[in-house]
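Q: Here's a chain of 398 amino acids. Please give me its 3D structure as C-alpha cells.
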Amino acid sequence: MGMGKSTGVPLSIQQKLLVFALVLLTFATGTSEFVIVGLLSNVASDLEVTISAAGALVSGFAFAVAVGTPIVTVLVSRYPAYPLMLTCMLIFIAGNITSALSSVYPLLMGARVVTAVACGLMQTIAMTVASETMPAEKRGTVVSLIFAGFTIASVLGVPLGTWIGQAGGWNMAFWFTACLGVVALAMLSITLPRNLKGTQNSFKSQFELLTQSRIVLAFFVPTLTIAATYVVYTYITPLLENVLLFPARYTSLILLIYGVASIISTLLAGKIAIRNGLSKLRFVFIIQAIILASLYFTIHFAVLGLINILIIGLVVYLFNVTFQLYLIDLASEYSPAAKVFAASLFPVSVNLGIAAGSAFGGLVVTNIGLLHTGWMGSVLALAASILTFISYRFYRAK
C-alpha cells in the first residue's frame, strides 16, 4: 500500500536467502497443488474411479485451502513463525509421501486435504514473515517474488512433475513434490528468523475483523478480479482449439507463453504496490474489463484472438501484492494481533475467485456459448473496479 518511495537500500545476504527460501516454498506448494491436473487420467485408471472423481482431488485441495486456512490460522497464530513453519513443512512432506504411497482413493483424498491446509498456512506465514522482516520500501517487490513462485510452479513445476508422473507412474509426481519439500525445509530451517513471536488472541477477536467494512471490501476485490479471468481461462483449451482453430499440438506452447505473461504480471504487481497501488488498481480493473470484453470481437481472428488471450495473462495478477499487503495493513490498524489471520484471507479470496469464475464460466458456456466468456468476465472486472473505488475512498478518508 502506501509503502513510500524506494530508497534503494539493498537486502542483506540473509534477507536474500530468506526470500529465496520463501519463493521455493510457494513453488513447492504450487507444484503440489496442481501437478495432478496433468495426471488425472492416470490416477482415475489406476484407482478405478471416474475422471470427475479424480478431478475432485484438485477442487478438494482448493476447497480445503479456502475453508481450512483461516480456521487453522486462528487456532495456531499464537505460536512463533519458526517452529510453526517447519512443522507445516514436515506435514507437507508427509502428506506428499502418503499421496505417493496411496493405492486407494479415500487415502489419496485425505492426504490431499491435509496437505492443502498445511500449504495454506505456510503461504500465510510466508507473507506475514515477508511483511515483517523486509524494509518497507522492498515489501512490494519481495511479496511479488513470493507470489511468482506459484506462477513458476504452473509454468515449470507442473509440466516437470507431469512428465515425471507420465514416465514413472503418477505416484512419482508426489515423490517429486515431497523432495521439493525436503529442500524447502532445509532452506527454511537455515534462513527463517527465530525471533518472530506469535500473537495471543481469541478466536472471536480475530474473526471480528470480518465485521470491518474495509476488510470485507478488500476480501472481495481479489475474488472478483480473479473470477473475471477464470471465466475465460477455465475454457482456454476449447477456445484455442475449437474457436481459434489452433491445432492441439500448439496448446501446450501457448499455455507456456501465457504462463510467462502471468509471471510478468506478478512481477509488475510489486511495482504497482510500491506507491499507492489501490489508486492505480481502480483503473487497472477497468482496463482488464476492456481487454476481456474485446475478446468477443478478436476471437474471430486467430492472431488477434491469441494476442488478446496473452494480454489477459499479462494483467491477471497485477492486484495481488497490493491487496495482500492492504489486508495486513488493515489488520495492523484494527487489530495488530490478527495480522496473520488477515494474511490468510488473501489465498482464501483467490481460491474463492477461481472456483466462482470457473463455475460462472461453465454457466456461460452451457447457456450462451464460448464466445461470450470474455464480456461476461468483464462484468466481474468492472465490479472489482467499483469496489476498489469505494475502498480507495475509505483509504483517503481515514
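Q: Can you summarize the key feature?
A: The longest helix spans residues 139-168.
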